[in-house]
Every structure is written in C-alpha cells, then in structure tokens.
Amino acid sequence: MSGPSTGGFAALFLRIGNLTFGGGDPALAAFQRELVDRRQWLSPELCSLAYSLARVTPGTNILAFCAAAGWQLLRWRGALLGVLAVSVPSAMLAVWLTWAYESWKSLALVNAVVGGTVAAAVGMMAAGALWLVRPFLGRGNRLRALVLVTASAALAGLLAIPPIPILAMAALTGLLWEDGEDA
Amino acid sequence: MNAFLLYLLLLKATITSFSGLSSLPVLRGDLVVRHRVLTDRQLNTAVAVARIGPGPIGLYVVSVGYFVAGLPGAVAGWLAMITPAFLIIPMLRYLGRRAESRHARRTIQAVILASAGLVISAMAPLARDAVTAPAPLAISAASFLLLAATRVDTAWVILGAAAAGLAGSLLAR
Q: Nearest Cβ partner of A59 from B17, B126, B148?
C-alpha cells in the first residue's frame, strides 16, 4: 500500500470535496471508493475507523472524515490540507451566492426566486429532521426515538428552554436508557 | 458584532451538533433571538444558498457569517465550521475503537434525536416567515416530499423551487 504525494492528495480532496453535490454522504462514499478501492492509500479498516469516528465527532461529518484520513496519510499536514481542500472553494462559492442575493434582492424577479428557495429550505429542514431520526427507528428503538424527539421539540418550542441544556439532558437519557440493540 | 464573538457563537452551535442542520437551533437562538443580528429570512436564505452549490450542508454557517458581518463574518463562519473536525485526531490517537463503545454510541444517538426535535421546533418561526401564501406552502410541501421520499439531489430541489417562485411571480403579473 503506497502513500500519496502532497499534490496528489490535495488534488483528490479538492476534486471530490468540491464537485460532489448532495451533501456529505455522497462525498464520503466517493472518498471511500478512491482511498480504499482505487488508490489503496488506506486499508479498509483504517477508512472504516475514520468513517465511524467522523459520525461521532461534533460538527460536519465529512470534514472530520477528511481530517482523519489526512492525518492517517500525511499526519497534521494531511489533516489540514484535507479540510482546507474540501471546504475553502465551496465556502467561497457560498459567500459569492450570498453576496449575489444581498446585491440583487431588491429586484422583484430575484425576490421571487429567493421566495421559492426559502420556502424550499423549510421543506428541506423538515426532511433534515426526518433524516436525523430515520436511522434510529429500528425495532426496539422507536419509543426512545419518539420520546427524545417529541420531548426536545416540546421543551424548546413550548417552554423555550435553550438547546444546550436539552442536548445535555438527551445525552444523559441516552446513557441511561438502553435501546433495543442492548437488550 | 465583531468577527471573534461571531466565531465563538457559531462554534458553540457547530461543536454541539453532530450532523446536517442540527446546529441550526443553537445558532438561531443566539443570532436571531438573543443578539438580533440575523433575521429568520436570512437564516432561511443561508440554508438554501448552501444547498445550491457543492459541499456539506454545514456550509450554511459560512453564509450566516457573511449575513452578520460581511467577509470577516464569512471567515468566522468557515473557521467555526472546520474547527470541530480536528477533534477527530485526538479521538483517533487516544480513543480509537473505544469511541465506538455501546455507551458512547447510545449517548450520541440520543443527542442526534434531540437535535431533530430542536430542528423541528426551530423550523416553526422560519416557516412563519417563509410560508406566507398557498404557493410557498406548496413549494415547501413538495420539497419535503421530494427530499424525504426520493433520492433526488437537493440542488435540483432548490433550483426547481427557484423556478417555481419565478413562474408564480410572472403569472401573478
């Protein structure tokens, strides 16, 4: 298994990170294919460890995966380069799109376009909540999932409790309440 | 708001979330409700803007930073987005497979489920701002159904919604 050059590493992370649409999951799948199957820079075990740990690292999963894969290949240089290559161009594009919105929002047609997209964003948030819940709706886990989702929404929406105490309470609940897989 | 304070507030949101838009409730609580430096409309727009281009969903934080404090704010947003990623390195070095233990997994799952509840509760005021007539309601519902029930790329949904908004405006003239 041969390691990458810095240039080859940067080129791969730039390409996958900034040309893969659809969020983190398609990009993670593309990285796995390239790093393990095609280029054999990482063993399946190391890639799987990076993938699993990225799921439990706070923040954006794909960036944590890039930091882990980069660190395994080129240590700190790889971690930094991986995260920068994946995030800088797409962040610049996001800034440009935001600037374009700010600059042109007074135009009626632009407002109509933005009105459509922000309405879609609401639907996207609802779908996002569903995506978060869906993996944990297996047999034996549904009650726990339902209680946690409903209680969090009610505590925040009805009692105006700030998110961080709610997340802390949820963490404690998760620690103490065994799910179906544990039984 | 200065960029450093903005970075800390955005970091608070990103470091207490585990995927997707789950940082949104904390971010909205701080920037929209408490400090009033961001509107619900801008937050909605940031979410939509981040989905038009490539990259992770968490990119919306960069757009939020730009809305609040211009380019320095965007840099603060970008830094807040990438900072938590480096926490994985000590986890790799010192925890390894222990971080996948049953207890750790259960705790993280509970936090993710609670995040979904928080996203639902944060969505209500955003919906009140964005869904003000039957046409936006139809666009929201169609977007939800497409994203929840099919594998269509989010960018296409956003572009379709933009086209629907434009068509609705032209027809109303």
A: B17
